[in-house]
User: What shape does this take?
Amino acid sequence: MFGPGIWRMGRMLDMFPEMTRFQKDMNRFFSGLTQEYGQQHPPINVWISEDDVLVRAELPGMDPGAIEITTKGDLLYIKGSREPEPLEEGCRYHRQERGFGRFSRGLQLPFNVDQQKVEANYEKGILQIHLPRAEEDKPRKIAIKSE
Assistant: This one.
């Protein structure tokens, strides 16, 4: 009834979770490299619990309207643009360490988030993003039926 082809297809389907796990491992590996060899902007701190993620990003002097936050599945993107500070006529920089221009930061989260419940606020140069875990992504105990 079932030829050997059906079993090969089953083995191929079994590979997809392994491939997804491999991709996540590679993302973690390469995000570690950027921390070692070049600072990403904006610098962030991330806290996780069973039900949510909290991200705080340092963005001093930003106009909140110039910051864009997007989520998709288990990904968070923070994008924006900072304008250069105007100089008075006849002045020039002696030292300039604060950057300006466009920036983009992507972050893979440990689980899918409920996009409808994501909240963000900006206060004293810190962008805080609260990302609740999606209900369908929460672990569920499965009842075992017996006859």
Q: What stands out?
A: The chain has two domains: 1-38, 40-84+101-138. DSSP finds one helix and seven strands in the chain. Confidence is low (pLDDT under 50) at residues 34-38.
